[in-house]
Design brief:
The structure holds two protein chains of two kinds. In chain A, about 50% of the residues lie in helices and about 10% in strands. Chain A is built from 17 helices and eight strands. In chain A, strand 7 (about 350-360) and strand 8 (about 370) form a beta hairpin. Mean pLDDT of chain A is about 85; it is low at about 1-10. By secondary structure, chain B is an alpha/beta fold. In chain B, a hairpin with a 2-residue loop joins strand 1 (about 25-30) and strand 2. The two termini of chain B are about 40 Å apart. Mean pLDDT of chain B is about 80; it is low at about 175-195. Chain B has a five-stranded mixed beta sheet. Chain B is built from four helices and nine strands. The chains are: A mainly alpha, B alpha/beta. The interface between A and B is large, with 60 and 57 residues.
């Protein structure tokens, strides 16, 4: 194809179906207010009897223009918006953004305490995100009690977040250059409490679901995605691993000090809803291992880098030291100016590969911020997964890919 | 590990150079990431070559987006982030389109090479107005279907004074505004607001 030669734009649907051979199809609308669509996802489903012929996702109901808004905010202010994308895993978003800004700034050294605290909190966040997924996807398939149990344990994690940052959901606790504040006293006790209680609770979930005949019938062999398709459709995270691809950014491109921790990557083989379930269940146990290591090895020392051009000076210094006051003033009125350039930084968020593409033009505001949201690509693979399945399996499939529409629409 | 990634990027650049010699306009390395700048019509060929290259096998398209540089000519960067799940190689391809006066600059699609590019290209079309020729389903994806403009372009304002207000989920072009009623009132209020003055950029340095 040559450039400049404007070919006609086809306004058709993504999945091509030979309509002439279908005599008895019905098109129904699922969402955007359907409780099983996990937010505001609308699916236009063409059915033949109960069999799905075609699914066309309609997204954008939660589009808030975060990428556009970021262009008018300083790097420091943009951090706060990253919480709001994947609102079930705000700390992972914070980490991805912070690492991208640090790469843009050329920050090389990070205090050990910041590294350990970041990894610990992000892994707790992974457990919390998986707990919401487990509760809601089980609820969609009719298992009500699992939902209540999952939220009980998630509450413990949110309490830890509240302890460190004062906020339960939108923490913004991880920031470029380290952490917003030092870990509070009593933090290790609280995490230890969770570590003591959670393995037992995880077993409880396994008892409820893993060998449950009803659960197996609803999930085994449902919404399959082959290894080749999973890669070609750009899926990532547990969806990709359930299809048999041993790929985890934490292992493949270690970031934020993950190479210092010992953990395994659960990989499935069938690529169905059950394997996605099992991969996430096993991942929670692995995350727990990391949390334990991070807590045991948590060093003392600074929780931020010492570069006052990036992180604000402590409050006591602002009141007594002229230089600190100037740094404080410059940071909060203008912010820092990374050199011209662009970076793409990927991390393994609970839902898959979260990428931040930041372009700096040398000013104090990001010239362009693009977020490669894992849910976006995972949702794109949904029509492919459910083609030829039953209508009720769409519910199981949506639950199994664990999407957050705030992140899909940004 | 970092060595290997770097070596693979070097190998990639060499492979593309030896196959498409004059098509490689520029190779940039910044913060350990390698970017190959290509003319738009060469993108699908290079992408296919990288996907099928026996030693590199870029089988995963991680991200596709665009950047608007309104003062520059051509105006838009279209950016592709490729990844190989077999060799752990990463590369960024970039192409530049958008001559002055061109409403919807065209780039050939790569959605037949990696199907995941389908939605990413729709997103870039929606938010930047870049048309991907050969795309099977080029519709808006995030904005309402009847939206008239492309919000991530730099000339799209953050506060709506130059543009008509959204109405019933869509956007009414100024000349088609309703003669009376809610739409009309909304427009009048909008237009009477003074335009926001541009914020001056602070001086560089301390």
């Amino acid at each position: 194809m040559q450039t400049g030669e404007q070919t006609e734009l086809h306004i058709t649907d993504s999945v091509q179906v030979d309509e002439t051979t279908r005599v008895d199809t019905m098109t129904i609308n699922m969402g955007p207010q359907h409780p099983s669509t996990h937010g505001v996802l609308r699916l236009i489903v063409t059915l033949e009897g109960e069999t799905v012929v075609k699914t066309v996702p309609d997204i954008g109901y939660l589009h808030t223009g975060i990428e556009k808004t970021a262009e008018s905010k300083s790097y420091f202010q943009t951090l706060v918006m990253t919480d709001r994308m994947d609102y079930l895993a705000p700390l992972s978003n914070n980490l991805g953004y912070s690492l991208a800004v640090e790469k843009l700034l050329g920050v090389e050294e990070m205090p050990r305490k910041a590294i350990y605290a970041r990894v610990l909190l992000v892994e707790l966040q992974r457990i919390a995100s998986h707990l919401v997924w487990l509760g809601t996807s089980a609820l969609d398939l009719g298992a009500q009690s699992v939902f209540l149990y999952c939220f009980r344990e998630r509450e413990m994690i949110l309490d830890i977040f509240e302890l460190v940052s004062g906020v339960r959901l939108m923490t913004s606790y991880i920031m470029p250059g380290g952490l917003q504040a030092d870990l509070p006293p009593g933090f290790d006790k609280k995490v230890q409490e969770f570590l003591d209680i959670f393995p037992e609770r995880l077993n409880e979930y396994h008892t409820l679901l893993t060998n449950n005949q009803l659960w197996l019938e609803r999930t085994k062999g449902v919404a399959r995605l082959s290894k080749e398709d999973a890669i070609a459709w750009g899926t990532s995270g547990p969806v990709l691993r359930a299809s048999g691809v041993a790929w985890d950014v934490r292992k493949m491109f270690p970031y934020a000090g993950y190479e210092q921790f010992d953990f395994d990557i659960p990989v499935g083989s069938n690529g169905d809803v059950y394997d996605r379930y099992l991969v996430r269940m096993l991942e929670m146990a692995e995350s727990l291992k990391i949390v334990k290591q991070a807590l045991d090895g948590m060093p003392d020392g600074p929780y931020q880098i010492s570069d006052r051009k990036v992180v604000p000076p402590p409050k006591w210094a602002v009141a007594t030291n002229m230089e600190a006051l100037i740094h404080h003033f410059k940071l909060y009125t203008e912010g820092y100016r990374p050199p011209k350039g662009e970076v793409y930084l990927r991390i393994e968020a609970p839902k898959g590969e979260l990428g931040y593409y930041l372009v700096s033009d040398g000013t104090a505001r990001p010239y362009r911020m693009h977020v490669r949201a894992p849910s976006f690509a995972n949702l794109e693979a949904l029509p492919h997964m459910v083609q030829g399945e039953l209508l009720s399996d769409i519910i199981a499939a949506i639950g199994s890919i664990d999407i957050v529409l705030g992140e899909v629409d940004r | 590990m970092a060595e290997t990634t770097k070596d693979l990027a070097v190998t990639t650049v060499e492979a593309v150079r030896s196959k498409f010699g004059e098509a490689v306009l520029e190779v940039v390395e910044h913060r350990g990431e390698t970017t190959i700048l290509l003319p738009p019509d060469k993108v699908p060929a290079v992408a296919t070559f990288l996907r099928d290259h026996p030693a590199l096998r870029y089988n995963y398209m991680a991200d596709l987006t665009a950047v608007d540089w309104p003062e520059r000519e051509p105006r838009f960067d279209v950016v592709y982030h490729l990844l190989s799940m077999e060799t752990r190689a990463v590369i960024r391809l970039k192409t530049r389109v958008g001559q002055p006066g061109e409403e919807h600059p065209a780039v050939p699609t790569i959605s037949h090479i990696w199907p995941t590019a389908n939605w990413y290209e729709r997103e870039v079309y929606d938010l930047f107005g870049i048309a991907f020729t050969g795309h099977p389903d080029l519709r808006r994806i995030l904005m309402p279907e009847d939206w008239a403009s492309h919000p991530l372009r730099k000339d799209y304002p953050l506060t709506g004074v130059e543009l008509p207000e959204p109405h019933w989920g869509g956007q009414i072009p100024l000349d088609q505004a309703l003669p009376e009623g809610i739409g009309r009132q909304t427009m009048r209020i909008t237009q009477s607001r003074p335009p926001t003055p541009p914020r001056p950029e602070p001086e560089p340095g301390e």
